[in-house]
Amino acid sequence: MSQMPPALSKCPSCEEPLDSGDRFCGACGYDLSAVPAPPDDNPTITMNGTAPHPPYPPSAAPSVDWPIAPETDSSHRPAPVHVPSEIQGTDSAGHELPAHASGVRFDGPPHPDEYTLQAPDPRTADFVTTPSSGTKVCVACRAGQVDQDGYCENCGHAQPRERDHMEQELDAVSAVSDRGLRHHRNEDAFAISSTALPDGSSAVVAIVCDGVSSATRPDEASLAASRAANESLLEALPRGTHPQQAMHDAIIAASRAVNALAGAAPAEHAPHQNAPACTLVGAVVTPTLLIVGWVGDSRAYWVPVDRTSPAARLTEDDSWAAQMVAAGLMNEAEAYADERAHAITGWLGADAYELEPHTASFKPDRPGVVVVCTDGLWNYAEAAEELAQVTPLDAALRPLHSAQVLVGHALDGGGHDNVTVAVLPFPAPSMGAGSA
């Protein structure tokens, strides 16, 4: 069992922000318990370019150009770790180190793959053993078993978590969510389903939520909101509730679910942290109607099958930028270029100023798809025309593939945020296709 690591604000390997009590970095799997306490004596090598206190008087200090320790290789994975006995080196005075030296050197030959790794190299090892039922094998070393905390017992590598990348497909709607390339966890969530209206026609549902990172437990907030809204819609629509009213009620139900998290917050969270919070955007598609509802800055877009027809954004952000544009104080380009642009003015959570669910109904006169997404996507395709250009032409026929392509577009653009996309073809298919 690893000891509790010293208090660190960021990972020494990849500089990912750390939470109190973390034993491994959630981004690169770095073993934080291996970080030593500050030594009493002076270090003999320069780490990451930071100059230590010289062990010699300035006049006697040797002139040594120490290399910077590599943090990642060309594939952006953590550099291989080597035990001290594997590497020959010298001390800061140029003398050969004794065989039992305990320091790790980073100035060896530029061929780290020639050293014996602590675990089998997954690129060359021949794995002939089959893991016992119910156990997971490490995705990094392919040899160690994964413990209950999600780390390899052999090499300590953090395993992909369930919410790092999620996909779900129904015939009538599909969704994909990804952690992105910069965040240490996925704070987005989604729910998709379909049901029957009283007249026997179908209704397809997609709910997408984005946790507010500055709040406590944003990942729990988005998950609770998406589930509550979806369940509310699946209960109301078969009863004959008008879809727009049902969407309004679903947002209220989602808000209550997020508020309940604040009441159940551990004592150590209050009063120093904000209550759990998230945004929400949802869509209901029927054979004749398209209904959207939202709170916050997650969005819904309309993309027609015939791309000679214009695409359209169906929602208006609850954000600082949107308020500036609505007030006529800035044009859209100026507002969204401001550093305050993404400050939201509406959200679900116990400390929301006032809950104002937005809903709208549309009657499209041609087939198309509704793209429901978090800002992790629209940051890279903000205008409706831009989003239409990166949406596959066969989106209505292959919604899962289209959602995958759109998430990939965000990751290729930098993946600075969690990204979640749901794609719903319009009109909704007849019952029997895509039932929940």
TrEMBL record:
Domain (PPM-type phosphatase) spans: 172-426
- Residue ranges of the region described as Disordered: 35-109
**UniProt xrefs under PROSITE patterns:** PPM_2
Which SMART domains does this UniProt record tie to the protein? PP2C_SIG (SM00331), PP2Cc (SM00332)
Name the chain's protein: PPM-type phosphatase domain-containing protein
| Species of the source | Streptomyces flaveus
